Amino acid sequence: MKIEKLTFPGVDGKRPVIIAGPCSAESREQVLNTATELAARGVKIFRAGIWKPRTKPGGFEGIGVEGLPWMKEVKQRTGMLTATEVATPHHVFEAIKAGIDILWIGARTVTNPFAMQELADSLKGVDIPILVKNPVNPDLELWVGALERLYGAGIRQMGVIHRGFSSYEKKIYRNAPLWHIPIELKRRYPELTIFCDPSHIGGKRELVAPLAQQALDLKFEGLIIESHCNPDCALSDAAQQITPDVLDYVLKMLVVRDNTQTSENIGALRRQIDEIDDQLLSLLATRMKVSKEIGAYKKENNMPILQTGRYNDILENRAKKGQNMGLSTDFVTNIMKAIHEESVKVQMEVMK
Ligand code: PEP
Ligand code: MN
Question: Where is the Chorismate mutase domain (predicted)?
Answer without folding.
Answer: 260-351
